[in-house]
Design a protein that fits this description.
Layout lengths: L13 E6 L2 E6 L1 H20 L17 H8 L7 H29 L5 E5 H14 L12 H18 L1 H9 L1
Antiparallel strand pairs: 1-2, 2-3
Helix pairs in contact: 1-3, 1-4, 3-4, 4-5, 5-6
Length: about 170
Amino acid sequence: MGPEVHYAQDVDYLEAVAAPDGVVVRMSENVAVVVEHILERLTRFLADGEAPGPRRWFGLRRAPSTEDLLDRMFPDAYQDSASTAAFRARHRSAMRAEALAAAQRVRQRWAGQPLMYLERQDVDDWFVVAGLARFLFGGRRRSRDVMEVVWLNFLMDRLVAASHPSLSALAQLS
């Protein structure tokens, strides 16, 4: 019949299930390392404004600046640019500080282990952090960092399914 085929059991995975007053998340060690790296980069960016390295597509596009990334993370609140600029001047530092606080709480409560229990307020922090971290990666479709965005989207999808099962049921109906 041919040579015997063996499949590696070392597959990347991430799953989340509902638990009393929270969610249990389990992931492969490799995914935990990637998520921990992403959290570290987001925290460093929000704290110091250190944008990710200059990854360019054949050197034709400039790397996004700190301001570009903050504009993506905290988009326009108004249609006209003057009102948007005034809103950003009033609120950007507070929004950035709250995002940094959420990232720091996530990092303090999670030690990078492949198994974790998240209380409801922890789940909210993970939504904030995963949602914002996506903007550090993959600003364009051909980005080299697209897998980070895929994992962050998948993480948020699994957290929604585990923390709000009724929303998952609605999605299956459509």
